[in-house]
């Protein structure tokens, strides 16, 4: 009995020592892991701001270069163009000091910061200052030649390489910090697993000796659940004890894992929003039209239905020229996100600078492509229309952009009804019946205009009344295929009827790959009273319905010619309503359009252009 009691006492002592050792080991492991986690988190928290400051520094460099180029383009006549340059020059030293403080504990990063500072000073003192001196001294041409010289390009290339190298080094340090956090988590999980194994062995021993094996698993489960409830979400729910308790623990662990996943996702979402949201909003604000409004002599309106989630590269603007003309610019940069937004902003600023100094549209496109330099695989489409409100002359350049459309007015005449009657007779038209194929309502889309050539007696086709809508075009039966208006021949038919005149492409898309002299040319046409110019981006015609069918240019043209005489405001309302009806919900790409027409002539006749 005494031996039995001594054995029981020894077992109790052994169990007690085991428990103490396990608890001490667990505390030590948790303490070490928490310390390692804290250290890794501290590094990550310092590296993230360092990455942000580096990006801000590079943006400041680019702002300085863009402002300098704009100033040089103006032949040094507009000193206000240097305001962004001066602002950036004030911010760069502050950002550099802050960056040094963030990377003080990272010798390699500190060395790269010094290298970046030297590269900036080399570019600033060796190139920029010379250009400013030349421009300030009245020698704008010499300053411009310095800006496009090999030395200038090489110095800024070195600055950009230093910035990219620093960004990559910071990213590498961030990855290493993330790895250390993961290793700490693995250590913690291993320690917890070891503790659970020891506790399981102790539970089995307790089961043999005291039949109290049920109490320990229940207590372990209770402690783990309480720890999770107290906010220690990484606490693993131990699966020990009878099958019923193990099942319960598994269900609780699954619930805990799901909750932890949701908490982590929510934290990442808030962090991403806090870091990226202001930058995205700033880009969107910068791409917002600066002066799109009714201008003297023009009724002008633009509209955008923004894409969901991503920052797209669409933008549009109207620029009032010193001579009274108005430049309309609509552009679309390939891709989405911050990179496309920044490229779109650069493009907008350079085009605005070039047009503001009096460049013709094709010349402006050529200059901007050359000024952008190597754009790698980034490209954009742009349409520039320079409009004289007093005589309606349009000088335009279309760099790979979807054809803008001029909707011609004055097609509604009394002869239109006679033309339609003869067209119906020539085609054997019966009301409500199309080519033996039933009611027009059975057609899902318009069909092709190619069979117009086969209709005889349409000598007054140009006088078709389009006021009753696209149904008047459908009345010309013999047009067995009206849904190929995406085909250029279909649009040519409408052009021949005098309903639509396209502003077709006058050159390739904007890219350094095609930056050859004379790659872009200028087109001309005249806007008459009552005509409407409609410019859009591809997001409008590439909207898809639930079946994946595009809205297409045929539907767009159909809506544009459906009713004549609409104001730009009403025309945009009807077009966007038609697109939303075809593709409900938030768009996957920005849908952008501008509509404008000449304002009614003021009493007393036209005003002379200044």
TrEMBL record:
Asked if the keyword Glycoprotein belongs to this entry, the reply reads no
Q: Which GO terms describe its molecular function?
A: phosphatase activity
The HAMP domain extends over 212-264
SUPFAM superfamilies in the record:
HAMP domain-like
- Chain ranges passing through the membrane: 12-31, 187-209
One Pfam family, please name it: HAMP
Q: Which GO terms describe its cellular component?
A: membrane
Q: Where is this region: Disordered?
A: 582-610
Q: What are the alphabetically sorted keywords of the record?
A: Hydrolase, Membrane, Transmembrane, Transmembrane helix
A Gene Ontology BP annotation from the UniProt entry: signal transduction
Stored PANTHER family:
STAGE II SPORULATION PROTEIN E, STAGE II SPORULATION PROTEIN E-RELATED
Entry protein name = HAMP domain-containing protein
Q: Which species does this protein come from?
A: Pseudofrankia asymbiotica
